[in-house]
Specification:
Blueprint: H1 8-19, H2 25-32, H3 36-48, E1 68-76, H4 81-91, E2 97-102, E3 109-115, H5 118-130, E4 135-142, H6 155-159
Helix pairs in contact: 2-3
Amino acid sequence: MAFEKIDDRDLTILKTLSQNGRIKISDLARQLNLTATPCWDRVRRLEKMGLIKNYKADIALQKIVSHITVFVVLELESHRAETFQHFERAIERYDEITACWAIGGGPDYLMQVVSRDIDQYQSFIDTLLELRIGIAHYATYVVTKSIKMNAVPPFDILLANSSK
């Protein structure tokens, strides 16, 4: 896998923006010992490279509405490429699925689903099963308490002793 060439200032920009996407360019520039224009140029270059995909707010959903988060591990009926493609296209349209990963070493996918309650979740799963999108087996794991959620990549750990 080819990695983009970035320097320490670029890494500082990525780390800072992953923690605070609303930081003012002037404040970010100050952290980098740059003026605003070259700092802004670097941010735009990182965006064009696809290293900054978007900017988001971290919403405290539990303060807005009662809900449950469910992790679903599932296995498909077939391991043919078209079965995986069909499943992946089908789940794209469901906002309840807030994340989905293809995984190895056992089941095929791990999905994160957010629902109002367990009844709504079960109705959603029933809908997926009725679609006949290749689901052979699934297991449901209801989140009872969120311990740690960190959307900030561990740059310092990932980049330690690596050549950039």
